[in-house]
Amino acid sequence: MFDNFRRDIKVVFERDPAARSIWEVLTYAGLWAIFYHRIAHRLWRAKYAPGSKFFARVISQWSRFLTGIEIHPGANIGKGFFIDHGMGVVIGETAEIGEDVLMYHGVTLGGVSLEKRKRHPTIGSNVVIAAGAKILGAITIGDRSKVGANAVVLKDVPPDSTVVGIPGRVVVQNGRRIDAQALDHGANLDPEGEMLRCLLRKSEELEKRLRVIEADGAAPVSATVGETCDVIDATDDVNPLLKRIDELEDRLRTLEGKLP
Ligand SMILES: CC(C)(COP(=O)(O)OP(=O)(O)OC[C@H]1O[C@@H](n2cnc3c(N)ncnc32)[C@H](O)[C@@H]1OP(=O)(O)O)[C@@H](O)C(=O)NCCC(=O)NCCS
User: Which residue among 102, 105, 163, 186 is least enclosed by CB atoms within 10 Å?
Assistant: First the structure.
């Protein structure tokens, strides 16, 4: 355990350019949190000491009170772990973290299931998790990967990758950029809203065409295919609606084709 403490202090100097002296570093909340966690985790794993889990919890909550960093005592954290700034970090019970991982404030390693099984992420070694990132579920982040600030990662990330955005997408792998579209977050901040607006425009267009047919039965046949709404990933809620509108459009086109 003391080896771990020593390594935890050493990495602060390696990872934080602002760290000047050991006294300064000892004031870091991120360092306190990992010290407390190493003790709490020991207690959590002690099989034959009665009440050890309770005391592990007490230490963990005390650490949370002092630092704003909540690490469940069950979380398995490797050597050289450093949380810079710290406030708002949450690390769940079944999370596993490799060696030399750097994490910033506001990160969550959370679960998406209420079942009592492995439900939190596994983080490889030498991973950087930027401020505000949320990594959810029993997924794996490969060694040497980087998770961008405010990303929400829901799927496995291969080693040597950079993942950014919501939902998180791998944009760099082994130093090579792999998905240009994934970076266009600014262009599409409201994908569901955009999808609904597109559906509304489509239904208005269909209604107009139907009204023309009903009016005199000899309307000019619109050969134009209306705009498609499949440019964006539709959510499960929108997909059936989109399908119905597409069917309606097909039937209307057939009807228009039969007109004199
Ligand atoms: C992701 C990160 C770790 C850099 O990783 P990297 O592998 O060096 O990636 P790059 O900087 O080359 O970025 C790759 C692409 O992702 C984009 N990107 C980077 N971070 C992003 C983010 N958080 N959200 C959305 N896109 C992001 C970049 O704009 C770049 O796109 P471009 O090629 O079109 O310019 C870094 O950008 C990051 O998020 N750092 C935050 C660190 C932090 O939390 N600091 C707080 C200190 S208090």
Answer: 186
